[in-house]
C-alpha cells in the first residue's frame, strides 16, 4: 500500500469542523507495541526513531480517506507502561474511537494485551466506543497470523456494544494504517447513527 502524500500537516481551518470531520482518537496498547510509530507514521509519513512515551503525544493529522473525504484526527498516544495504564480511563472518557496496537510477535505478552483490551472495552461499554485493533509488526517473519491474534485476544468475546475491526499492519512502513483508519471511521459514523436513532425512540 502506498501512503503517498495523501496525508499532510494539520491546518487550523479544520479545527471547527462538525464532529464527523474531526474526531478524537486514543491510541492505546502495551508498551513497545508500536503506538508512537503508528502516530508519527501518520503524521509525517516517514519513519522516525521513537523513544518510550513518558507522558503522552498528541497530534492533529489531516487524513484523506478514500470514500469519506478529508477527516481531521486528533490522536492521543498515551504511554503503555504498566504504571501509566490507570491513566487510560481519563483519555477514553470522551474519545470517539480507540486504536489498540498489538505487537504480533510478542506471544508472551498477548495474554496481558488481552486483559488490558477487555478491561478497556468494559470501561467504555456504556459509550459504545468503536475499537480498531492493529496487529502490528506483520513484517516480521515470526509474527502471528490474524486468526491466531483474534483468538488469543478473545475478540469474539467483546460485547455487542463494542464494534471492532482487526487490522494487520506494519507501522514502520505504514502498511494497513489508512485501511484501518477508514474502518474505524465507518464504525464511528455507524455508531453515531445508532445512538441518534435510539434517542428518537
Ligand atoms: P510504543 O509507542 O507502543 O511503546 P514504539 O512503541 O512506537 O515506540 O515502537 C517500539 C518498537 O517497535 C520500536 O523499535 C519501533 O521501531 C518498533 N516497531 C514499531 N512498529 C513496527 C513494525 O511494524 N515492524 C517492526 N519490525 N518494528 C516496529 P525500537 O527498536 O526502537 O525499540
Ligand atoms: Mg510510545
UniProtKB/TrEMBL annotation:
Pfam families: Arf. It is found in: Cell membrane; Cytoplasm; Nucleus, Nucleolus. CDD domains: Arl4_Arl7. Mg(2+) binds at residues 36, 53. Keywords: Cell membrane, Cytoplasm, GTP-binding, Lipoprotein, Magnesium, Membrane, Metal-binding, Myristate, Nucleotide-binding, Nucleus. One of its GO terms (cellular component) is plasma membrane. It comes from the Eukaryota. GTP binds at residues 29-36, 80, 136-139. Transmembrane segments: none annotated. One of its GO terms (molecular function) is metal ion binding. PROSITE patterns: ARF, RAB. Gene3D superfamilies: P-loop containing nucleotide triphosphate hydrolases. The keyword DNA repair does not apply. Small GTP-binding protein which cycles between an inactive GDP-bound and an active GTP-bound form, and the rate of cycling is regulated by guanine nucleotide exchange factors (GEF) and GTPase-activating proteins (GAP). GTP-binding protein that does not act as an allosteric activator of the cholera toxin catalytic subunit. Recruits CYTH1, CYTH2, CYTH3 and CYTH4 to the plasma membrane in GDP-bound form. Interacts with CYTH2. Interacts with KPNA2; the interaction is direct. Does not interact with ARL4A. This is ADP-ribosylation factor-like protein 4A.
